[in-house]
Design a protein that fits this description.
single chain, 963 residues, alpha+beta, 7-stranded mixed β-sheet, 6-stranded mixed β-sheet, 40 strands, 32% helix, RNA-binding
Amino acid sequence: MKKEQKYAPAKIEKKWQKKWAAAKIYKTKEGGKTGNKSSPQDKYYVLDMFPYPSGEGLHVGHPKGYIATDVVSRMKRMQGKNVLHPMGFDAFGLPAENYALKMKKNPMDLTAKNVKRFKDQLEILGFDYDWSREVNTTDPKYYKWTQWIFLQLFKKGLAYESFEPINWCPSCKTGLANEDIENGRCERCGTPVEKKPMRQWVLKITDYAERLLNDLDAKNNDGKPLLDWPESIKEAQRNWIGRSEGALIKFRFQGRTLEVEVFTTRPDTLFGVTYLVLAPEHKLVQELLADVENRKEVEEYVSKARLETEIERTDVKKEKTGVELKGIKAINPANNEEVPVWVADYVLADYGTGAVMAVPAHDERDWEFAKKFDLPIKDVVRHVWGNKLPNEEFRKSVCAIVRNKKDGKILLLKWKNGEKWISPVIGGVEDRESYEDAAVREVLEETGYKAKIVEPISFEIDSHFFATHKGIARHRTIKHFLLETNEDSHVGVSKKESEKHELFWTTLDDAISCITHSDNKIGLQGIKSGNYSYIGEGVLVNSGQFNGKNSEEVKKEITDFVGGKWVTKYKLRDWVFSRQRYWGEPIPIIHCGKCGVVPVPEKDLPVKLPKVKSYEPTGTGESPLAAIKNWVNVKCSKCKGPAKRETNTMPQWAGSSWYYLRYEDPKNAKKLVDPNKEKYWSPVDLYVGGAEHATRHLIYARFWHKFLYDIGVVSAIEPFKKLQNVGLIMGEDGRKMSKRFGNVVNPDDIVNAYGADTMRIYEMFMGPFDQQISWSTSSMVGARRFIERVWKLRKHTASEEGEAPTGRVDKILHKTIKKVTKDIDDLKFNTAVSSLMIAANELEKVKSISREQFEILLKLLAPFIPHVADELWTGFGNKRSIHVSGWPVCDEKLSAEEKVTIAVQVNGKTRGSFEALIDIPDDELKNKALSLPEIKKWIDGKVLKKTIVVKNKLVSLVASDLS
RNA sequence: GCCCGGGUGGCGGAAUUGGUAGACGCCACAGACUUAAAAUCUGUUGAUCCUUUGUUGGGUCGUGCCGGUUCGAUUCCGGCCCCGGGCACCA
């Protein structure tokens, strides 16, 4: 080794990348029976979400996840695992196609170029991918199997043609899946999505909803979760799948045989139904139309609703609209009451049955609708406060909220009874007096204000409580009212009343927070929200034989009573799988005039995507492929008669739904994956990628995997054992890195200026891996300094006959081995790097270290800074690369501390500390603590009341004054 | 609105069966080296008050806010506020 060789990353990095490639040290050994004999316990499959090679190129944020898997895979390899760490490209789909259209290039050529550029950019970072296993979703050898999976789905009835209206992006000119929509807009281009009826292929993902949901919480035999995934991703999937249980209940129509079925999660409120609502698209609307008195009005409403975009339609703030089907009445099966039937767009056609029973008293949306159209509101669930008490005295009472007409302030009473109560006007209802009269009378008596009732706010609520000031248990039935008054209507108040409480005016918000009893707040909360429906649980009233029962407990009983069915519904929709675009896998289907829909025989796969001159989307519901006559026109594979190919293509998410399996056996021409190899490698042990894939890629892949499991292609029920999210790297200005903001940092520039190793270790060090964080080039220099110090540390090594290794060095090293190993396993790279820095700092302080000791440090560093590590490693004369050497193992004996610092606290505050041998008895620690001068100072003249000793940690003394 | 994360110095962050808050790094400041600068090395670096001017020693406060449990709370409990994300007219 030359003595004063300077650290020059540019020189060593290229050199090592070539050497590694030449020596094939990262080539994965074959698994399974066909391969080596290593057992599945020795394998480790670590996977990145493969990139979508856009034309934009990389910024420093993109490789962060790849660096992490690289670190993990390198450690696992050194630990003797058979590591599979592959990389490939997801290149079909809208983004590439739109970009190609913009650039006026063929997407096929452009994709090849982008992939090349992407690979070059990845290569300079020194990753350990086994490129011999590279996959590309646009390669016919690959998409042959994507098409094959589609055929299997078709055979099982899980791929079907549908003519239902779907989401259509008028700008991208294609249909979209529910998952491709963000707040009513196309996720790609932001254009508001329209509903468009058209023929399309749909995958029945809803058949798997239950399993997709349940397996999120499944446990292994050892009680650990089957999916070691971030809770946020699991939660996002639960929300997306959106399971809810409820009842299907049939309503007959007055004077006809027709029935309508509604779905409700609240069959307990059935007696409170005051009208029925059908979605505008509901079939029955058309069927009933002939007998509807206001037919024209209804028709107009329905066609208007069809034209609305998703955004207009689902805007929560929008006022409710609807039209009554005049002359049509439905019959409530619970009490045979006739209720009107309405059409309104607040009912969604594609959830539940597209029809709902409206219970305005107990549903906010129905309440709003009923208020607007002046429909009756019938209370059937009574809100109850507190539990029934013995010997209750029953009272009907009112809670009168008085509002000042001028400034909207609310009148409250501050009670002088010593309990510090604050309440609105409350009082009992006299015999033969109405609630309304009582409210007005009480306000006048207690406050001296003449007030008028504006509206009742709630139905009766029940309150059970113990009136401490009177010493009796009470049961009140309370009704809240809103009244209005103005200051000049004050007529004075009796002395008796003014002794009881004083009056004050305050704002609505303030009133809600200062009222002392929550049963008196309900009215005010209703006024604040503008909605007086009660959606909580309670006791049934006005519900015939079910009166007095708890609403939660009575749900199934009422369902049975009316012959309803208890069912489970999901928000998850079937996966709209057709795209009317060029750049995707052709759907392997033939349409024959005689035979109908015919699957392409498996032996004819792949159905290759033909080269075309014009791949502009047509917007007609046909893809550009429809124009290629010699491709479209084929012989029917059944009857050999003239037929046409399906011209729709698959969505972007098709190829990525199974690619992880192909890495296990990338060249297999006969099978998607060899079962032995699949058994050996599956599942993926660690999967790293962005959280934005929570409800698309990760749901689709789980769905396909479960299907492949069902048809015996794969052996595990879930594809990805552990999932780790990578946090975005933002620009230095805290915004997303984007050309638009001019804050893009290019990895090539960073590597040129500082070296790949510096960029790698900095990205691992900058913060918790899964957290979003801003790039900081100035912070990164610390990483470069650290590498320089390690570089210099090599001079620190003693010559062969040098000094004997000290215990201190071994202790530092073995503690570091333990920490770094655990941290990498837990993907806490920032603290792993931090402990490596600490170790290097410590080693610098020591006079000299042995070669073996330095090599331990190098091995721990190797996953993070592979080039420097190998350069220094071979500098010591090692022949084989450090990356195929063994990972150090912590020797607990060497890493154990014999001395610890004991903290001493007096009355909970740390007042001193001392060094002590490990594990010495409590008594000795206590005595030593008491003898310290800085401690004596605090306990002199006091009585020691208690002593707490925590082994190897602290002594806590509790002392108090003598008196 | 519902659900899931999170809130710690000038900055990124560390510390979890409750036990010395601020590891590690950046920035900043001071010193060494240098004709000089850069680089490098050494040291200081939460706020505030007292003491010292023999240059140090010590007190109080401090992990979003308020309250509670405890000898002791960033950590546990109750109530709020703010930020990020998911879902949202899903009956």
